[in-house]
Structure formats: structure tokens, C-alpha cells
Amino acid sequence: EHFPEMIRECPEVTAILVHVMVDRARLFNTAELRDEKLMALGRLAAGLAHELNNPASAMVRSAKALGEELAQGEAAARALGALGLSASQLAELEAVHAACLAEPVRTWSPLERSDREESLASWMASHGADVNLAAPLAETAVSLEVLERLAGVVQAGGLDVALRWIAGSCALRRLTEEIELGASRVFDLVSAVKGFTHLDRSPLAQP
After folding, report:
1. What is the dihedral of CA 85, 87, 93, 95, to 10 degrees?
2. Tens of pLDDT, residue by residue, the chain (207 residues)
3. Which of these, 66, 64, 85, 83, lies nearest to 169 by C-alpha position?
4. What's this model's pTM, rounded to 2 decimal places?
């Protein structure tokens, strides 16, 4: 009840009160803006963690599988070397290997891939090879015609060894591509966040 009289008797009080209210309002606005920024930062961090988790998990799985495939590939390579294949046999083997590393002419649907895997497994069973090798080969461009040519020049015992080496090479190629894809995804995400944090900065050189 004394404020009207204070303002009337001392006008400087009005100026002081206005400054105090402006400072209080600015402080409240700053705190509210800071809270909004912190909430936005929390949402960004949560989203980034989720997006980084997927490629990182895939890279970890592929890296673990890569170690196992390397060990199996080395064993298959030693067994293949012990066969003492001739130049013509090695040429056919290299043709299958090249088809394995080549990009498939198209992407198979899950049903088509399943049919392809069953066809390869049936062929391998009829030629005395490990049917488990059909799964990694089903994802490649290897055809039954190419396998038939290989079976025509490599004996039954050596065929299983040759296919094991080829399948291992295909698996190694696939795993390295998955790791590369995951690393590229992580790099893109980090670059995007880095660009986001510098949105308020001029790209031009400053004095």
C-alpha cells in the first residue's frame, strides 16, 4: 500500500523498479530458453544413441564372425594347397571364386533365396559336399553351371575342400562389406551432428 506514495514522492523508484522487472523477465526467459535447449539436447542425444547403436551392434557382430571365418578360411586354404591342383583345375576354381565375389545380377526375394539355397544344397549333397556351404553361396552370383564345371575337373574329395574355401572367401567379403557399411553409417551420423552443432556459425573465414 506504500508503493503509490513512494512513486509519487520519489519518481526514481519507478525507474529502479522497471529495471528490476526487466532484469527478472530477462532472467526468466533465459532460464526457460536454457531448459528448452537442454530438453532438445536430451532428445538429440537419445535419438543419436539409438541410431548409433544399430550400426555399432552390426559391426560388433560382423567383427566377431570375421575372426571365426578367418580361422576357417586359413584352414581351408591349407587344405586346398595340399590338393596340388593343376593349372586347369585352378582356372575352374578361380572362375567359381570370381562368380562368388561378383555382384549378383539382381536381389533375390526371401522366397527366391530359400529356393536357391535348397537347389545348391541338393547339388552339394549329390556331389558329396557339405550342404551347409549352400547358405553363404546362395547370396552370391554362383550358378549351378559354374559348379558343374568345377565338379568336372576336381575330384569328389577335393570338391568339398574347394567349395569350403570359396564359401569362406564369400563370407569374408560379406562381413567386411557389413563392417564398412556400419562404419560409414556411424561416420555420417557423427558428421550430421557436427554440422548441426555448427549451424549458427558462418562458413566463411573471419578476421
Report:
1. 180
2. 888 888 888 989 888 989 999 989 888 888 888 888 888 888 888 888 888 898 999 899 888 888 888 888 888 888 888 888 788 888 888 887 887 777 665 677 788 888 888 998 898 888 888 888 888 888 777 888 888 888 888 876 788 888 888 888 888 888 888 899 999 999 988 888 877 766 656 666 666
3. 66
4. 0.62
